[in-house]
Every structure is written in C-alpha cells, then in structure tokens.
Amino acid sequence: MINAVLVFNNNGQPRLTKFYTQIDTQTKQSLIAQIYNLVSQRPASACNFLPLPPLLSRGASSGAENGPSDAPTQITYRNYATLSFIMISTSTESPLALIDLIQVFVEALDRMFENVCELDLIFGYETMHAVLSEMIVGGVVVETNIDKIVSAVRDQEGNLGKKRAIQAASSGIGRTGLPGLGAWR
Amino acid sequence: MSAPVTLISLPNANPGQTRFEKSLYDLIKGLRHHKGTEEEYIQDSLRECKTEIRSQDMDKKATALLKLIYLEMFGYDMSWASFHVLEVMSSAKYLQKRAGYLGAVQSFRPDTEVLMLATNLLKKDLVSHSIPNMSLPLITLPNIATTSLSMSLLPDVLSRISHSHSVVRKKAIICLYRLALAYPDALKLAWPKLKERLMDDQEDTSVTTAVLNVVCELGWRRPHDFLPLAPRFFELLVDGGNNWMAIKIIKLFATLTPLEPRLIRKLHRPLVNIIQTTTAMSLLYECINGLIQGGILDFDAGIEEKDEIASLCVGKLRGMVVSDSDPNLKYVALLAFNKIVLTYPGLVSLQQDVIMHCLDDADISIRLQALELAARMVTSDSLQSIVGRLISQLMDSRPLKKGSHLEPGDGYPEWENDKQRSEWTNKAPLILPPEYRVQVIHRILDICSFDNYSNLTDFEWYVDVLIRLVTLLPADSEDTFMTNATHNEQETLSQSNITDRIGSEIRNIAVRVRDVRMEATRAAESLILIDNRQTLFSGVPMSNNSALGPLAWVVGEYAQYLSSPRQTLYSLIDVSNVSLPAKTLSLYVQAIPKIFTQIVCSGGRDWSSSKRSEVALNLARIIDFLEALGAHPDLNVQERAIEFLEIMRLAADAAHSTSLDAHDIPFLLSSVIPGLFDGLELNPVSVNAQKKVQSPDELQLHQTFNEDLWVLFSHEQGNSHEKESKLPFHEYYYSRETFVPDKQGMDSTSDDLQLMPFATTGLDHLDDQAALVRRKHYRKERTRDDPFYIGTEDAWTAISEPSRPQLQISDEGELNIDAIPIIDLKLSETRERHSDHMSSPPPEETQSTAGSRLRRYHVIPDEMIGHEEELGVKDTNSLNKSNRSPLLVDSSGLQRLTLGEEGVSSGYTRSVPRAEDDAEMAKAMQQVERFRLELQRESERVHPTGVPSEGTLVKKKKRVKKTTAPVSRDSGQKHEPVLDGNSQRKPKKKRPKNQRVVTSS
C-alpha cells in the first residue's frame, strides 16, 4: 500500500502532505525534511527511487528477505519544474507503476488547473487534496483513469480550484512568476 | 519580489467573510510579505484562527479551519482544534463539509477524543443523497478508523458496497479494507461482498481494480484464502486489458504460485506472451518478477521451456542493468536480482560482472542495491576482490585532509597495487553521503562475518581490513545530516553502532581464531594507544567511541600478545579516559590489572630494584587513575574501580614491604593477582545458550532454608556465646579441617544446596585423613580439564592428561564422587571440541607458516546447548514491534483471521478429504484451461483469414484424437475438462504435449 504522498518544492517547502497513517506533526516534519534532504542531493540523471531515510530505515532493514511486509520500503519521487512528488509505499506496489501513478496525479492536476504551476497548487491545495483522494483512498489506489478522476473532482467543486488560482493571479501575483516562486509559502 | 504589495483583503469564495478576517489567500500572501518575521506572523495568524474558529459563523469557522490545515502542513499543530473540525464537518454546505473532513484526515490521531462524537455524523453522511457527500466519510474513515469506530460503522459501509454508483462502490471497498485492519472481524462480513464484486463480469473496471488492489494487500498475509479465486484472476489477467490491473494480478500470483505449483503451468504462457509483446516497462518488469518469484525454475515439467523462460527473464533483466538509457530500469532490475538471489543464487552470480559495475554507479540508490546484492552473492573466491573494491571506493571519496594520514604503501599492498585501482581513482571523485559510507562498512562486515566467517580465507587480511575501516569511518556527520535535533540521537546511534561493530569484530576474531589472535590483539593495541587514537578514529568523537570497549577487553584478555604492554597500559590509564562512556570505562578498568599482571610476570621471576621501582611506579599511576574513578556516577564503573583499587593498594604494599631482602616477585603479585584472571579460556557462547540451561528439578528457589530463621537469629543475639558451638553452621565456618568448596565445587553445590556441605562436613571433621584425601581429589578433578593449570610437583599431576575423556573421572575417585550432584548440561560435545583445539598444534607452531595463503584457520563457533532454536527470529519480531517505522500500517491483525464462512480457507487450513481438494482444483484448472483457450482464439482472430492456424492447435489436434470430439469450438470446450482432469492425475502424459506447444509457437 501507499503510506504517504508528499509534494514539496525545490526549497523543501511542503505543498501537500498526505499520510495514510496517523502520525504526529513533528514526525511528519522530520520525515519531510529527511526526504527533501535526499531528493535535493540527487542529480537530474539519477533514478526515481530513493534510499530509505533514517526515520524509515529502522523497521525495514530486512525488507527483501522476508518478502512483503507492512513496513514501507519504497520511496518513489519525480520532479516537475519546481516541485517534487513523492510516494512512500510498501513492496506490494510495483515501483515502476508508482512512477506512472505520479504522472497520472500530475496530469489530473494539469487538467484541473489547465496548465498547472506551483502557484495554482498553493492556492488550490484543497483541490489538490480532492484530486488525490479520488486516486488513493486509505493508501490503496482506487482510480487511475484521469477522466474519471477529473470528472469526480468537478462533480464536487466545479472549477473552483481553477477559479481560486485565477483569483489569486488577478490580485497581482502573476502566474508567470514561476521561477521566483521558490520562497513562497 | 516583484509582486506589488496589496493591503486590501480581496473578495473571495466565502462571501460571508468580512474584511477584518484574513482569508486563506491573505494568509498565504501575508506569509510572503513578512519575510524574516514569518514566525511572528504565523503566531499572530494562529491566535486569530483560535478566536475565529470559536465563532458562531460557520463561514468564519471554515475559513479559520482551512488556514489551520494550511499551517499544519508546515508543522503547526492543530490537534487542539479537533472539536471545531467536527463542527465544520457537520456543516450543511458541501465545500465547508469537505474542509472539515480534510481537517479530520490531516489532524485526527488515534487518541483524538472527539472521534466518539463523530460516529453519528459519519453514519448520517454515509447515507446522504449526494454522491460527493457520501464519498467524504468513505475517504476519511480509512485514515481515522479505530476499532470501535470500525465496529459501529461497519454495517453502513457494507451497505455502500452495493450502491448503484461505481464511484461509491470502489471507495467503499477500500474503506472496508482499512476498517478490517482496525477491526479484523470486519473482513469476515465484508469478504463475501468483496468477492461478489470481484466475480461480477459486468462490474465497472474501477471497482474490480479496487477489489484486486485490496486482495493484493491481503494476499501475502493469507495467500491460501485466495487460491480458489485463481481462475478469476487469470481471466482478468488475460482479458482485462488494463495494465494497472495486470500488474496487481501478477504480483498477487507471485504470492499464490508457491502454494500451488500447478498454477505456474497455466501462467507462464500468458506471462511470456506479455513479456514478448508489451510496451509498458512496468508490466514487463512485473511479469519477469512474477515468473521468477513464482517459481518457474522449480517447475519441473517441460525442462526446455523452463530454461528458455529463465534465460528470457534473466536476459531481459540483464539488459535493463546494462543499458544506460534508463536508470530506473537499472534500479528495478537490481531490485529483482536482490529477490531472486535468495532462491537462485547461481542464476544471479552469472550476472556478477554487470552487477559489480553498478557498485560504481553515480546514483546512490543504484549503488545501495548493488551493494546489497554483492553482499548476498559473495563467495570465498570473490570476497577479497569485492571488499577491496568497496574499500577503495571509500578511500577515493574521502576528503583530502583525511587522506593525508595514510602515506601510500604503508603496508596494505592488497589494494594499493591493484591494477583496477588506478582505474577507479581516475573517475571523478564522488562525494559519498555519510549514511552510504556507514552502509558500505556494515556490508563489508556482513560479507566477511557471514555464517561464522565461512567465506573468509585470510584472517590476517581481515584484521588489516578492520583497521583500515576504522580510518575510513565517515567524518563527523554534524554538518551533513544534523539538521533536525530529533535525529541527533538516531544518527549518533547508527554512527556508534558501526564503530562498536568494528570493535566487536576485532574481539570476535581474537576470540574465535587462535591463529591470528596475536595479530588481532596487536590491531586492538594499535587502536587503543592514545597517540594513535586521535588520528585513527579521526571521524569519531571521543566521547562516542564505542569501539574502545571491546578493544580494551582484547588487549586485557590477550595481554601476552601485546607488543608494548607498557604503552598500552599507559594509554588505558590516561587521565583523558575518565570522560569515556561508562560502558567502555568499565571494560577499561577490567583490562588494566590484566595488563599490569602481564608486565609484572613478563620478565620472569626476577625482582631487581629497577623492576621493583617500575612496578611501584605503574602501581601508583594505576591507583591514581582508579581513584579518579572511585566516585564515577556509573555504579558499575565505580564498583569495579574500587575493587581493583583495593587490590592495587595491596599490591603496592606488597611491592614496598618485600623490597629489602627478597629476590623473588612478591607472592601477591606473582600468583595471587594473576590468579584472578587465569582459568579456562573463554569461548564464544551463543546468545541464547543461557536460556537453554535448564534449572534442575531439585533447585527450589522459593523454599525457605529454615523456617525458624528468626528464632535462630534471636537465639544467637540473646546467648550467642553459650550456644555458639551447637549451631549447625558453626563447624562449617570455624573448624579448620572443614571442607571448603572451591570455586568449581561451589558451582555444583549451589545447584543443590540441600545435599552438599552440611551432610558431609561432620564426617570429615571426624576423620582428618579422609578430608585430606578428599580435598586432594577435588583439586585434582578441578584442575584436570584446566589446561592452564600450573601443577606443583605432586605426583597426582601426572594423572591429568588433556585428552582424557571427561566421563571416566567419576570411576577413579577414592570416594564416591557420584554423590556430588553434577548437573548434566550436555556440554560434553563442546568439551570434546574444546579438547580438540587443545590437541591441535599451539599457536606458536602455526605462526611459522604465517604469510602463506594456504593457511587453514579454525574459527570457533558459538557454543550452544542442544540445537539453536528460532529464538533469534522471535527476537527480531519483537524488535520490529518496538522499533517499527512510523508510517507502518499494521495488518498483522488479519493474519489469524480465517475467511471461513465460504469455506474459502477451510479446504487448506483444515484437513479436508483429498478428493474434494482435487476436485476443486480440477474445476479451477478446467476454467483456467478454458480461458487459456479463449485467449488463444483471441490471438487467432487477429489473423484476417480466420482459418485456425495449425501451429497453435497442436494441442487441439491431440485432443481431437484422444477424445474423438468434433472440431467445432463449442464441443471442444465442453470436452476439455475431461482431458484436463486426466492431465492433472497423469502429469507425465502432459509433458510431451506442453513441449509441442512451445515448439509450435
């Protein structure tokens, strides 16, 4: 199963944190920091899989020997422009399929926001959560069809996410300002 | 940056908002405008949120909640707001409700108290008329489910599984899975419904995939339960047409096939077909993985096929590793090899060349996988080259200032002169993260110590490696990874673990391998020496150097091998050591007198004035050091220090008092103190051995010795002088001739206190002669199997031969030794082994062959009583429980659950008549066969001619012959089952058929 989905930008500022286990805020932050640390060190040519950060490696040292287990052993990430999308999962998920799943997520967001950028996700984070919960429920993948995902979110909120993003843009924060967005919170 | 500053609150989606409250946008923008004073701004905003969320206005409340959720993402706790979350959840407006549910997902914890209040709200929303509304509890419940919540909401969620809309059904299915994790019995009720969804051909693919995903999660916990569904899975695999689903099914089959080998027979064709045709790498990879893990190589029917498939799979994986186009493929191929190597190491070791290449990959993830793989496929032949390669990798990546400590060619020709080394150094130096370096060192130790060093052929080389590893320990990692204070502990833990491990390895080698004990001791010595310590342990902070403890033990225990015992002693009693950790220090304290004794005794029995003054000086220094520790906060250190302090003071007295006349070393120094440390050699003992020592039946730990103890005491206090001689234990303590049990005697007597001293002492007292004989005998017995006993000129020493079998002892005694209770620990085996070591040539002789590569080392294994049991496994289990990953979702509750209602599992867990089992399987196979045929036809249809292609119908032709069935499709289908049933019972007949199919395709 998928244990967590994280999105953060190049500065390590979280844009989405979804944990399918109930853990305290402090641990969440430490984990994000550790994973950001790993992701930020990786060159663009590296593969999309991360070694386990210290927080996760204690329970899972013998993952491969014992076959599947509940312990999260795979971290898949993918970079899009200024953002990194991360999925933490157990070995029951296929590593290559997870890369595709991230792609589905981003494409669905792109449809929702029409040419998505980081700023859209900042102001439309509710929409981002809605898209994610149409894809993954309780850590199990529930839908991979982009059309179905997008239409389900539209059923919920219409084009609210897009509207909000445009609203934010019209207030003087240009969506074109992407390169300088790093410092945004 | 360039964005204009706007101070006016914007109109936004919440129309009820006044301009005095911040909207979410204002918050986000405000954060931007308060750069530098963000913390202050956030605290301000949090305060505002606190008041806003208490307001009666639902709009205001919801906005405040959204802001809190946003801030929670950055680590600002919002658990205090859980009641308000609940309030927003109950809002009538969908978007506010959604915000409330989002708040619940993000902030509720198992101990959130308001959860109990949520039950009714969730129930109500679950039967809402609007689908988005209904979905909210379904997607939220998985995150917040507790046992009680699951119990009360189970019926409501169950009813949603047959909802008319597939969006609801798919979410309800997954929701049920998570409810079952919190409340395992839920699965019993849910399973029939899930199965129904799975079997329904008309079901929406999304729903089927959702069930499959759930089954895949459950599958590895209870594979037996899902075996009967194999035909359906097969069907879905073959004509599902959805790669996501296919991947999951293949993963599921990989867990099922080991239980039912016949499945692989049906599976391999479609899988091979996919491998050859698919363009999706993920599917291709999972097919290969599934085939190999599913046990295609164990599948004995159709050997040619097997080889073909195996080489196809491994070839594809190898291609993935070799190709530089996609690092992901490289990574997953190594991942697959890592799984395969456990079952088919031979297959993987053929790929050694490419895997070794990955050890130098620029990508740490790939390196780590290759490292793990290398550690698993190492053999005694490849060990040294692999370890050498890893070490040079560590050395190359070291910062220059560290490298300056080691001059080239300082005695490690092994890798210094390696041809390949220059090649490696030419590569651009890669900055390796400290975690990776630690990982590499761990792996090197794993590789070498595997299976009690069975792969290691050259222990002198290993000792060198260990010293080198110490110098390669990652430099202080504060600057790289100590970003967060909470990880400090963990980081230093893993850091000290690796130093500790190296220290322990040196100790292990010293204890286990006699032939290199000297080298190991000298290695420990070189690391202990205070002058070297700073340079060698450059990466490890002094206060945290846990390698020193085991090293100190080695230099103490094997002090006779030290090259400069004096220097070592001075290093141990250096004042700076007082700050070492308590655990290390207590081992230091123990080692000090051992080395001191060695120094005293090394010069023979000569007691010249120079020696005397040297001893006195050493003693003074030792006493100084021990005095400093006399008030150590750790009790263990304190106690040991004080004990040895007293002994050392006695020794100092002895050294002074005999100074005038004697030419011999004072008795205290020459015999008494060494006597503390002499004895049987210490052998490695298994960690679990202690647990296996059975307490004797006679041992009664809860029985009082004497019911009238208090009476005795009061008696004694009152008239001790009169009664003194009549007390039963008086003789024991005060008579000269009483037998005092020695150390070994004590061991046996303590096991059975009722029998021993009191009964016999009276007799001994009567007959001095008998007592004398008996004492002698005890001594003789005690020293017989003690090879280190230095006998006196007494005649009886001649009796003790090292090779004498243990059990004969009891026949020789003049007195009835059998009366002495000795517990049979069944140690005779290990004793025998022990005596083997003793009869083997002493270390000095083997030293002469040092340097020759052909040396045979004997590694002493752990001593164990009886058989090693699964205790270790248990331990790791409990360890995992206490030390598990914070993200882990525990599904172990499902392990003991049987989905018995449908008889799903009963056929496998209980002993059900074999025939029934077979029938079921035959039926399943029948279906599988049918689907396989359908697939074949499907592929035939591709041919525009519509004429059945002869190649694929070889099987069919045979069938025609056998069953004399008409060639029409329908009847062919009808008759297959008969044939298939046959083939189940007579696999031999099936074999040629299979072969022909392959050749035809």
TrEMBL record, chain A:
Q: Which residues form a coiled coil?
A: none
User: What domain of life?
Assistant: Eukaryota
Q: Which GO terms describe its biological process?
A: intracellular protein transport
- What positions does the domain AP complex mu/sigma subunit occupy? 1-154
User: Where does the record say this protein resides?
Assistant: Endomembrane system
Q: Which InterPro entries match?
A: AP_complex_ssu, AP_mu_sigma_su, Longin-like_dom_sf
Q: Which GO terms describe its cellular component?
A: endomembrane system; ribosome
**Gene3D superfamilies reported for this sequence:** 3.30.450.60
Main location class: membrane
Q: Which UniProt keywords apply?
A: Membrane, Protein transport, Ribonucleoprotein, Ribosomal protein, Transport
Q: Which SUPFAM superfamilies match?
A: SNARE-like
Entry annotated with the keyword Nucleotide-binding: no
Q: Tell me its family.
A: Belongs to the adaptor complexes small subunit family.
Protein name as annotated: AP complex subunit sigma
TrEMBL record, chain B:
- Tell me yes or no: is NAD among this UniProt entry's keywords: no
InterPro entries attached to this UniProt entry: AP3_complex_dsu, ARM-like, ARM-type_fold, Clathrin/coatomer_adapt-like_N
The biological process GO terms on file are:
Golgi to vacuole transport; protein targeting to vacuole
Which stretches does UniProt call biased (Basic residues)? 985-994
Record-level GO cellular component terms: AP-3 adaptor complex; endosome membrane; Golgi apparatus
Q: Region Disordered: what ranges?
A: 830-853, 937-1001
Please report which protein family the annotation says this sequence is part of. Belongs to the adaptor complexes large subunit family.
Query: Assembly state and interactors?
Result: Adaptor protein complex 3 (AP-3) is a heterotetramer.
Protein name stated in the entry: AP-3 complex subunit delta
Organism of origin: Aspergillus kawachii (White koji mold)
